[in-house]
Amino acid sequence: SLKMASDSPESLMTLCTDYCLRNLEGTLCYLLDNETLRLHPDIFLPSEICDKLVNEYVELVKTDSIFEPHESFFTLFSDPRSTRLARIHLREHIVQDQDLEAIRKQDLIELYLTNCEKLTAKSLQTLVSFSHTLISLSLFGCCNIFYEEENPGGCEDDCLVNPTRQVLVKDFTFEGFSRLRFLNLGRLIEGVNVETLLRPLASLAALDLSGIQLNDVGFLTQWKDSLVSLVLYNMDLSEEHIQVIAQLHKLRHLDISRDHLSSYYKFKLTRRVLNLFVENLVNLTSLDISGHTMLENCTIPSMEEKMGQTSTEPAKSSIAPFRGLKRPLQFLGLFETSLCRLTHIPAYKVSGDKNEEQVLNAIEAYTEHRPEITSRAINLLFDIARIERCSQLLRALQLVITALKCHKDDKNIQVTGSAALFYLTNSEYRMEQSVKLRRQVIQVVLNGMESYQEVTVQRNCCLTLCNFSIPEELEFQYRRVNELLLNILNQSRQDESIQRIAVHLCNALVCQVDNDHKEAVGKMGFVMTMLKLIQKKLADKTCDQVMEFSWSALWNITDETPDNCEMFLNYSGMKLFLECLKEFPEKQELHRNMLGLLGNVAEVKELRPQLMTSQFISVFSNLLESKADGIEVSYNACGVLSHIMFDGPEAWGICEPHREEVVKRMWAAIQSWDINSRRNINYRSFEPILRLLPQGISPVSQHWATWALYNLVSVYPDKYCPLLIKEGGIPLLKDMIKMASARQETKEMAR
């Protein structure tokens, strides 16, 4: 019943269901008294649609952190005259007693309740209302459903002294459930008498008693003519159990597997037991004996083994007892047993740890109900993906995604699953993955980051995100990714490696995106977070990748985004700039990133007065002579000063240095640059440069702008010629050539 991650496009049905659930008020419902959801009176929906709405709702609440659950959701299905339910799968804390109570008038055929720990004995009573129609029922892991609250004494004051006690319900049975054929009682609470509970059922076809300890299972023989599937996972077996099982002659599926780590088992499998199954259970198509220790050797000596290709024919079986099978089994569970490594295994599908196929079969078979086994299987897949090459990539990815979604709160699965995803999404597998599948990976990775502050999970998730094209592939979850990364960077204690990856991702996310994205991220506290990181590094006197990436991220996020530039100034960004310059005089990359950022600040007219201090102007003037990173530092310093000069002599509110002196140094700097320099800069728009052309107030600014354009269009013509034309640069240059105030060499370059 698990929903497998799929790679084909969503059906129209799925898209509509998803849309309606995310917009209940705008589609199927209205709000009564501003709080209760009510179905519009003219809506009638058949079970095909209602089942899907309920099952998808549960899935969304579980796996989509943005999706808001509704208190009154299940009440929409209270009246079978307008909404019909037939087959529903509910899981975990999403479901409470009142939710089942709300749908009690429905004629349910199939009801799966998986790990619904909030359900109490009130829900047992609700089950009775489905008794005349129910064919399939699962109460797997519903550990409180046989408990009711008992209030001793019953008086108000007394209650405060004795809070409610939980008492086991002893008198419930499946009396009246006349159509029930499939029943899963896995992980049923101790103390419930299974035999009494089940006795009223006339003809059971499938029974799951996983994790229940029963010394006497003789009562199972009452269904020996109807039982086709029996699961006794983790039940401690004995000779008596084996004798009973051998009488269930109709069995097609038998699972007596166990988790070999969970507890000590006296029982050991022998040749005789397997022979007994093969002889008596002639209809068997599926057998699981995973985790068992073999008391004696069941294998055919390698001398007698038929050589040649591996075979599924029973006659060639390397496991002696299985030579008696009439035909190969459809499935044979051998996970964590020595038998899975043999050559000839008479089954089409084998779960084990020998190779990729067996490991994937194990993940597929055990994900839903046995996370403890699944996490070990995923760990084996991780090794395969890391060391060898995965041959069934698509299937591997889908299985890991499904496991991560299903067990969002299981730390072992989150750790092993996120590690496996890193290797399964790296570049060598890129071509084989669709957009949809890669999006599903991103969703589960973000879920993991949200649920776990644990270092390993966080690191694995961040590393996996690095396998994607950023920002393009993360655009559909843009806000959420940024919030999660900033959250990581704002934690007081930080793991160095995670910090480095997170800053790198933040930087990539704000590079080459629209301004509204940058503004939104700025409002999330991006600027403040980066400045705090820089402050910490300064205090430690270290200039590492984190320091450089943080300045680079600030350079990107302030590009043509005045609000973020203002934030930078308000949060003492200039003070940090000067301190970094002083502390790390030789760090060229750092200087380039800092000046690129100040270039963005200088483009904002309202903020320029804050740059007009003797200290800042002297620093910018001195950097004109810098040879750091080719011409980049000198170029950016000159750009900052060009914008300041553009405001005219009256804006020059300082005595030292003199304006003319700075202008002279700017001319000298520009003349020293090689016009064919390859560049370490990326312009999305020329608008801030072009505005310096049509003016006579500052010929040097005009010259800097013309030099910049000339260099970019001559070194990178394919990229920048179209941009210059698109943004109206040609008429501006033509007009400038006619201006009397423009310098001759500027006009030459413009021409």
What does this structure look like?
Residues 196-337 form the Zer-1-like leucine-rich repeats region domain. Residues 404-750 form the Protein zer-1 homolog-like C-terminal domain. Keywords: Acetylation, Leucine-rich repeat, Repeat, Ubl conjugation pathway. It holds the Pfam family LRR_Zer-1. Interacts with the ELOC-ELOB/Elongin BC complex. Part of an E3 ubiquitin ligase complex including ZER1, CUL2 and Elongin BC. It is elongated, with a radius of gyration of 35 Å. By secondary structure, the protein is an alpha/beta fold. Helix 3 (97-102) links the parallel strand 3 and strand 4 (110-114). It has a ten-stranded parallel beta sheet. Helices cover 45% and strands 7% of the residues. The N and C termini lie far apart (72 Å). The chain folds into four domains: 27-148, no CATH class; 205-299 and 312-354, Leucine-rich repeat, LRR (right-handed beta-alpha superhelix) (Alpha-Beta Horseshoe), CATH 3.80.10; 469-598, Alpha Horseshoe (Leucine-rich Repeat Variant), CATH 1.25.10.10; 612-750, Alpha Horseshoe (Leucine-rich Repeat Variant), CATH 1.25.10. The model is unreliable at 158-162 (pLDDT under 50).
